[in-house]
TrEMBL record:
UniProt protein name: Lipoprotein
Secretion signal span: 1-22
One Gene Ontology term of the molecular function aspect: N-acetylmuramoyl-L-alanine amidase activity
Species of the source: Scleromatobacter humisilvae
Source superkingdom: Bacteria
Assigned keywords, A-Z: Signal
Gene Ontology biological-process annotations: peptidoglycan catabolic process
Keyword Signal: yes
Organism classification: Bacteria, Pseudomonadati, Pseudomonadota, Betaproteobacteria, Burkholderiales
Xref: SUPFAM superfamilies: N-acetylmuramoyl-L-alanine amidase-like
């Protein structure tokens, strides 16, 4: 049996020598409050129910609201639904504005990554995971720099073959491509520690630049304090475009999610994104779709 076939068995939960990337999971038990099922490679419920669980507001320290997120009607109506003629609309939009493929996670004509490390028999990426970089750390500073400060917008620090996400978006809405959306990647504890290789390729990761400060009431190196508002209009606009581009490549609207919600209850979980406003994201997506339809 070839190595790929052996490792496919490992992805199903069978420990085999030679599959060093495999990390075991409890196949029979849903993982976390949103109930990730390692067999079906999805969370509990239909696409909209999953989004409502995965987009619950994230408080400092990674504490999530226990109640499902209230999503704007315009966003709720899209999640999990076919994209229609979104792809040709986006092509015209990108060409008119000279926006390169790298700025949207890769070519609209390329397939998305697939689960189980791009196994062709596994589902295409279903989730767009929103993160914040928590960088730069400003220590005991009492204020945050303005959003156009060069230190807040330097993207080169995130570059490299092991970039932690697919796309990085700075405060000005400019992007750095870490990995094409067609490349399987993992960036959460759920993927790396609990599910293993089966999750590699199921999630697309977008990091939004956000500085952090130390909470004087906390530990010496904590980064609990984030700016308010958390993100800029330019970041919401680019996040909406990335969501649309990834969804166009899949053929239906992806399920958006917060990093903290994926890792809820797992040791080493993160607390991002802080102060992400779903209403502003939905409004940016509405504006984009209105422009595309003209």
């Amino acid at each position: 049996m070839r190595r790929r076939s052996l490792c496919a068995l490992a992805a199903a939960g069978i420990a085999l020598a030679g599959c060093a990337f495999f990390e075991p999971f409890e196949a029979a038990r849903p993982i976390g409050p949103c109930g990730f099922d390692a067999a079906s490679l999805q969370f509990d419920g239909d696409a909209l129910a999953q989004a409502r669980c995965l987009l619950r507001p994230v408080a400092a320290g990674g504490v999530l609201s226990p109640a499902p997120a209230v999503l704007p009607d315009s966003l709720a109506a899209l999640i999990g639904q076919p994209v229609g003629d979104l792809k040709p609309q986006l092509r015209r939009y990108l060409a008119a504005r000279h926006i390169a493929d790298a700025a949207i996670g890769g070519s609209l004509d390329a397939p998305l990554s697939r689960a189980r490390d791009d196994d062709p028999a596994s589902p295409a990426a279903r989730y767009l995971v929103l993160h914040d970089t928590s960088t730069p750390w400003l220590g005991d500073a009492t204020t945050f720099p303005p959003d156009d400060d060069p230190a807040l917008n330097a993207l080169a620090r995130f570059d490299g073959p092991d970039a932690v996400a697919h796309v990085f978006v700075n405060r000005r809405g400019e992007t750095l491509l870490g990995h094409d959306f067609g490349i399987p990647w993992r960036a959460t504890q759920l993927e790396t520690r609990r599910v293993g290789v089966a999750a590699r390729g199921l999630f697309l990761h977008v990091e939004l630049a956000q500085p952090r400060r130390r909470d004087p009431a906390g530990s010496a190196r904590n980064d609990r304090i984030a700016p308010l508002p958390g993100f800029t209009d330019a970041q919401y606009a680019r996040a909406a475009l990335l969501y649309a581009a990834a969804s166009a490549r899949r053929g239906d609207w992806l399920i958006p999610a917060f990093h903290a919600a994926l890792d809820e209850g797992i040791a080493g979980a993160h607390d991002d994104p802080q102060h992400f406003e779903i209403a502003r994201f939905a409004a940016a997506l509405e504006r984009l779709r209105d422009t595309l339809a003209r």
